[in-house]
Amino acid sequence: MSDSAYFKRTIVKHDVSSSILPTGTRSLRVYLPPGFNEILSYPVVYCQDGEDFFNFGRIATIANKLILDGEIEPIIIAGVDVDKKVRTEEYSPDGALFETYTRSFTEEIVPFIEATYPVRTDWNDIVLAGDSLGGTVSLHLALKQPEKFKQVISLSGAFYSASYDILAAQPDFSWLRIFMIVGLQETAYETDRGVFDFLQINRDTHQLLSERSARVHYEEHDGQHLWGFWQKHIPDALKYYFEV
């Protein structure tokens, strides 16, 4: 396969109307696999930080290559953009806009994708993906609708105390399947909420989920809290769920 074929991607942008979000709309970008056919159906990955996943994570190019090389089945990827100024408020469970955003995601954004594209709606064909706080909100969305969202990709998840306490209150995670990575150099990362040891945060969350019967694929690698690190592991994350 020539390199040029990998870069022939189909990405469609949408502005979804919302009666829940204060802005009234939310921008999405949707990757369609090679040979996309509307009469077929496809698994779907919903990415938080959609713009970053596509631009810095290069998830569309990565998926294209994996599909064309026969390593994963064809999938659709829906990236949900976020305004960085309110990202923490939307993604953190103690944020002022968390309930608003998560309601819009489940009641407006996912239904829009399901009405517009031939995505499968069974839980084993749906994955929620996110980096840092995007990983956090992905797991909390799964908690809100565990009958539908059981599969999560968390890249250096920001499981701060408010999030960890919610997870700790759950007695059973046997329904959850989660792919987690974290960087060994993420021990003192500065955020808008202070400096955090993401390595320890993820170790603690991994232990909590495992003790409560979640199926956890957990890895630690050399890397910092950056897209340059996360991008390297997106192929493994996609293969974990969609390998042929």
Kindly summarize this structure in a few lines.
With 244 residues, this protein is of the alpha/beta class. It is 39% helix and 23% strand. It has a single domain, classed as Rossmann fold (3-Layer(aba) Sandwich).
What report would you give on this structure?
The protein is an alpha/beta fold. It has one domain: Alpha/Beta hydrolase fold, catalytic domain (Rossmann fold, 3-Layer(aba) Sandwich). The protein is built from 9 helices and 10 strands. The strands form 2 sheets. Strands 1-2-4-3-5-6-7-10 form an 8-stranded mixed beta sheet, with helices on both faces. The model has no long low-confidence stretch (mean pLDDT 95).
* CATH topology (fold) name: Rossmann fold
The residue-averaged pLDDT reads 95
Helix content: 25-40%
Strand line-up across the major sheet: 1-2-4-3-5-6-7-10
Oligomer designation: single chain
From N to C, what is the helix and strand string?
HEEEHHEHHEHEHEEEHEH
Pfam families: Esterase
InterPro entries: AB_hydrolase_fold (IPR029058), Esterase-like (IPR000801), Mycobacterial_A85_antigen (IPR050583)
Protein name: Esterase family protein
